Amino acid sequence: MTRLFGRRKFMVYGSAALGASMLLKACAPSTTTTASSPAADSSSPGASPAAAGDGIKVGILHSLSGTMAISEKSVVDSTLLAIDEINQAGGILGKQIVPVIEDGASDWPTFAEKAKKLIEQDQVVVIFGCWTSASRKAVLPVFEEKNHMLFYPVQYEGQECSKNIFYTGAAPNQQIEPSVDWLLENKGKEFYLVGSDYVFPRTANTIIKAQLAAKGGTTVGEDYLPLGNTEVAPIIAKIRSALPNGGVIYNSLNGDSNVAFFKQLQGAGLTPDKYPTMSVSIAEEEVQAIGKEYLLGHAAAWNYFMTVESPENTKFVDAFKAKYGDSRVTNDPMEAGYISVNIWKQAVEQAGSEGTPTDLEAVRSAAYGQEFAAPHGPVKMFPNHHISKTVRVGEVRDDGLFEIVYSTPAPVDPIPWNQYVAETKGFACDWTKTDVSDPGKFQI
Amino acid sequence: MVASILDGIFNGVSIGSILLLAALGLAIVFGLMGVINMAHGELMMLGAYTTFVVQNIFKAIGGPLFEVYIFFALIAAFIVAALVGLLLERGVIRYLYGRPLETLLATWGVSLILQQFVRSVNWVLVFGLLLFCVLYFGGQWVVKRRADFERIKGWSTTLLLFLSGAIALVGGNIVASTYGLAATQPWFGAQNKDVTAPAWLRGGIPIGNYQLPSTRVFIMVLTVLCVLGVYWFLNRTAWGLRIRSVTQNRNMSACLGIPTRTVDALTFALGSGLAGIAGCALSLLGSVGPNTGQNYIVNTFMVVVVGGVGKLVGTIVGAMAIGIADYIVGTGILANLTNIPFLKDFFTFFATTSMAKVMVFALIVVFLQFRPAGMFPQKGRTVDA
Q: Could you say which of A360, B42, B161, B213 would form a disulfide bridge with B114 (CB–CB 3.0 to 4.6 Å)?
């Protein structure tokens, strides 16, 4: 049997496989370059090495493969859209932005490695990237060691305030806390907490439990699914026995488990009129992926919904659809990615330099107080490296988009150290302060 | 009380039947053929994507036909997965029989390729690949016809490879720039896709306060049908007899004139097709995305190993045992049954989904210490003996 597969044949098929993989590889970038508009040709990565010489290199570090690619790919799309828009309007200080895209491959050590590569080898002046808290925690030491700059576009659990990271997603007080208040007022007092088994849901649920205890709600149970687990029958049985007459389900599941959860919730007859759910990881893209029939009437809390009515949002949505196709939707982390690039651009322009590693400090201090009319509303960068954001609650409607049922009257200021959790109560972060030993976390 | 016990039994058996359906194809490929197929999950994923495509076609047709699309999807998923499995067997695995470690690595590589393929497949990629295959293999065919084939083999193959690669690349780029977004837009992309069950499968059958989800009932029925079908095929048909004889003693079967190559290909295709059916059915309960297969692969191997390699009945019992154990530990039924304080605390601690997994895995490890060959070990002289 082995004789049939001689060395010569192995060489032939081996080189065929190599050739095919080269072909695949070669086809992949050609899709991204041609997908961008013709005017952006000069800015496409690696299109001309000469362009990199007189452009500003920025890094984009997201998972383009592996389990997180599902979500992160679309943030890359919106980040590139922002860069394209800036380049078409003449660039920053007369220079074009040249994005260098690296794949974190849903693997946390790879993120750290690629961050190092972008900083040392490509000499980028800023990096936009990361999605999961695990990847952010993995790259954090790299950014602190190199004293470099990361813009992080996803809502997260808070309890962190690094000098080297700008957080353009929501802190817990800009997503979770207002949504719990809204639920207590409109839906019920008994909560069942469901989450994926990693740092964000566990921290988020700690905050929710403390908040419920303080505001007269009760937590009747909580359970965690391993990431990627799709067998939710035991959880549904437990919810039904803990809440026999209905109650609120607070859902911080992430990824594939969400699909299984909502499909089986409906099958088990737990409908949103008796068991309303509030999700913090389900945005427009996820609604498309789960199927809107399963989600009708379920709620989600975000800062941005595609249905926000403002001229800025219309412009953003139109530009995005023109570039990536009519069937695409926009969501909250994508908008945060778009905000990141624009705030960084304004900071660089104010600092009057392109933020080479030597004057990153100038860009950083110029970033504080930058205001931007974002698609979801006005935002402002605070000296605690987070931005103020309007908070909204939306319910899934027939067309798979969200009907906005509540929004805060004004942008909510960010509080990175949570005030409901005992360990961080009374702590704050302000990187303009010089009279405290650690501006990242000090007692007020 | 009665209702809750019934609910428990139903859910346990239901989880078990999902595991069984996913593991059935693997029980054939791994159990009977001894091939460690790490791409089994990806064959399921292809079944799920086929369901998505069939669903969209029926949605476009509209009308009452949409309500029965799932049956067409099951057939289509079986065919697609079986064809890909056949290609996999002919292209990769048949060179690696008897070398389990290499098979493991090769099929794992295939699984990664398939995952990335569904993420980035678009018209340009398909066009480029087809062009490359036509040029390269067509060129090979022509060169082989020449009398001096042996002499020019080395350099002509290299030349062909680079030429067809370059032409495919240029061709792909031309298509990309001519048709723009229409050609470069990925078919599926990296995002999960929505498979929506027809209305009659979305609700449930109410029993007292409980509701039996229709999808789970559907999957249980489907699992029973698949198991019966496989039993009938292996034990009552001529090809089933040949498969069993080849897996028991390959050399002797070959001596007696059984075409072992064909049998191998057929067995693998059958196993893959069953994976496709599983993928289709599970898309009603779970997600459809590039990673769908990864969520099941560990569980399926676990079921086959616990049940005993080479015996279908082992797979059935193994799946049910794991499913029921998972449910009664995870929901804390055990904790409610005991009144001994220490035991109660112990079971409550394990009554979360994550910890239930830990407990089930620990039980499996202990079980395999005592019965290394699984519940139903194969006896007598087998292929490996």
A: B42
Q: What is the nearest CA distance from B327 to chain A, expressed in angstroms?
A: 6
Strands A190-196 and A218-225, sheet pairing: parallel
Range of the domain at B166: 122-185
Quote the CA–CA distance of A28 and A38 in Å, as a whole number: 18
Q: How far is A400 from chain B (nearest CA, A)?
A: 12
Q: Are residues B44 and B80 in the same domain?
A: yes
Q: Tokens for A216?
A: 């007269």
- Is-contact B113 B87, C-beta < 8 A? no
CA-CA distances (angstroms) from residue B352 to B8, B334, B349?
16, 12, 7
Q: Cβ of A24 under 8 Å from any chain B Cβ?
A: yes
- Min Cα separation B154/chain A (Å): 9
Asked if A15 and B158 come within 8 Å (Cβ–Cβ), the reply is yes
Give the best residue of B55, B162, B287, B326 to mutate against chain A (max A CB count within 10 A): B287
**Residue B106 is encoded by which pair of tokens?**
């090769």
A74 CB neighbours in chain B (<8 A) are 191
In total, how many domains does chain B have? 2
Q: B296 and B368: one domain?
A: yes
Task: Give the chain A residue nearest B160 (alpha carbons).
Answer: A16
To the nearest whole Å, the CA of A140 is away from the closest chain B CA by: 27
B180 and B192, same domain (yes or no): no
Residue B229 in 3-state DSSP?
helix
Contact A12 B352 (CB under 8 A): no
B170, B85: one domain: no
Residue A265 touches chain B, beta carbons under 8 Å: no
Dump pLDDT digits (tens) for A223-255: 998 877 888 888 998 898 889 888 999 999 987
- Let me know whether B240 and B373 are in one domain: yes
Cross-strand bridge partners of residue A152: A167
Tokens of A1: 């049997």
| Structure confidence by residue, pLDDT tens digits, B196-243 | 888 888 888 887 777 888 898 999 999 999 999 999 999 999 999 998
- Domain end point (choices B146, B162, B185): B185
Residues linked to residue A428 through DSSP beta bridges, in sequence order: A442
Residue pair A71/A153 in contact by the 8 Å Cβ criterion: no
Whether residues B141 and B262 fall in one domain:
no
First-to-last alpha carbon distance for chain B, in angstroms, is 51
Q: Do B65 and B6 reside in the same domain of the chain?
A: yes
Instruction: Round to whole Å and give the CA distance between B364 and B367.
Output: 5
Regarding whether B156 and B265 lie in a shared domain, the answer is: no
Question: Cβ atoms within 10 A of the Cβ of B145, count?
Answer: 8
Per the CB < 8 A criterion, the answer to whether A337 and A78 are in contact is: yes
Q: What number is the ipTM of this complex? A: 0.82
| Chain B CB contacts of A258 below 8 Å | 287
Kindly list the strands in the beta sheet with A56-62, ordered across the sheet, starting from the edge strand earlier in the chain.
Answer: A97-103, A56-62, A127-129, A150-152, A165-167
pTM for this prediction: 0.81
B-chain residues near A229 (CB < 8 A): 295, 353, 357
- Tens-place pLDDT, residues A252-307: 998 778 888 999 898 888 899 999 999 998 888 888 888 888 999 999 999 999 99
